[in-house]
Write a structure and sequence with these properties.
Elements lengths: L28 E12 L6 E14 L4 E8 L9 E9 L5 E6 L4 E7 L6 E8 L4 E9 L2 E9 L5 E10 L1 H10 L8
Antiparallel strand pairs: 1-2, 1-10, 2-3, 3-4, 4-5, 5-6, 6-7, 7-8, 8-9, 9-10
């Protein structure tokens, strides 16, 4: 199911744009993450499965744009990894960002709670139908999210727990997701 492979943190987010001008307290950067994405029943009690994700997060134009590249294992053994590129574009001088992915599978809003862009909410509409709503938090250790998928064939809770890694580790993790030579 494609919904299982929807990109990590930047599956855009919630509510309305913040009123007034906000001065961001971020600078351009590139940070790498690796960890687990786990799927549960909507109440979080029954596990459905999990996968791994390697993420490259670029903050550009002093926070006006954020681009995340999420790489996850292929949909079956021997298949190339799935790569999801999500872009967030700031709405004026607010903390609301329009979100979309390169594959045009979703659109929505990610609304940050602070000028450091450390906490946010999701309000996403999937092209195939359904929504994703939830929260995310960025700490020095990594990123954690909790998202509710609804209005699809199988509603679920999606939790991401990704730790910070360096660029060399990121490249190694992405390379590990490639199928063995000749297996494709």
């Amino acid at each position: 199911m494609d919904v299982f492979k929807i990109g990590l943190i930047i599956l855009a987010a919630a509510a309305a744009a913040c009123a007034g001008a906000v001065v961001l307290k971020v600078s351009d950067s590139e940070v790498f993450y690796y960890g687990q994405v786990a799927f549960f029943s909507p109440n979080g009690k029954l596990p459905y499965g999990e996968t791994e994700a390697a993420v490259r997060r670029q903050v550009l134009e002093n926070g006006a744009r954020i681009v995340e590249t999420v790489t996850q294992p292929g949909r079956s053994p021997g298949m190339r990894p799935v790569e999801i590129v999500t872009e967030l574009k700031r709405r004026g001088r607010t903390l609301a960002y329009d979100a979309s992915d390169a594959g045009a599978t979703f659109t929505g809003t990610l609304t940050f709670k602070d000028a450091e862009l450390k906490a946010w909410t999701y309000d996403i509409k999937l092209k195939a139908g359904g929504t994703i709503k939830g929260t995310g938090e960025l700490t020095p250790a990594g990123i954690k999210t909790a998202k509710q998928l609804a209005g699809t064939g199988r509603a679920m809770l999606i939790r991401e727990d990704l730790g910070v890694i360096n660029a060399a580790e990121y490249k190694r993790r992405v390379a590990e997701l490639l199928p063995a030579r000749g297996a494709e």
